[in-house]
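Deliverable D5.2: sample structural annotation.
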Amino acid sequence: MPETRHRPVALTVTRSLTGGSGVSAHYHDEHQIVYASTGVLAVATSAGAWIAPATRAVLIPAGTVHEHRAYGQTVLHTVGLPQDALTGAEPVVVAVRPLLRELLITCSARPQDTSPATLRLRAVLTDQLRDSPERPLHVPAPSDPRLVELGALLDRDPADPRSLTGFATTLGSSARTLSRLCREELGMTFPQWRTQLRMYHALRLLAEDQPVTAVAHRCGWATPSSFIEAFRRVMGYTPGRRTRAEF
């Protein structure tokens, strides 16, 4: 990650980011929720990357060094949260329903407003977050050099059709060893890891208005229909509805 900056307060603010731009590595003393009402936002830490389209938001624990990256023209909303709003040690991706969406947009547009009305809105926002289901889309970062190299190959070409055995031959390892490392380090199987990474790339390409058919082939799905079905299973809706909040 780039140079880390300490931002004592998790800023409550709305800002616009062009595709490919971002916010360099930093951390806050407060918890923070980050939400892109348009575009797609990726949040990266040393533990991996979390990605969120307009139907998701990312909760970032206090003290977590992280950076943001925007894909597509992105409107970013950030809101500082009280200490009891989050208990985990890693970022969490949650579903954003219509009410939570409006609360995030409204609260982030009032960064200096401490009026009773705004404080009540922030309290409702916190309540909504507690009731929002988690919708994880996390690409974990491995530490074993063999998995790091495998991750780099997958990231460079998510459509690479090779099996784990094929990758193992390239890496001078065995499929059995790589499979074990995936379960031990990443908490998932190799196919699950590859699917998460492919979905990460797909969301980025969709944010740049790439056609669904092109995204399917560039990210490794044999047909657009198989991509649409995989996308629906992971995201809960089809790629053509990706800008709508879930109900």
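Annotation notes: The helical segments are 98-108, 116-131, 145-156, 164-171, 175-186, 190-207, 212-218, 224-235. The chain has two domains: 5-138, 142-241.
The annotation will be released with the project's public dataset once the embargo ends.
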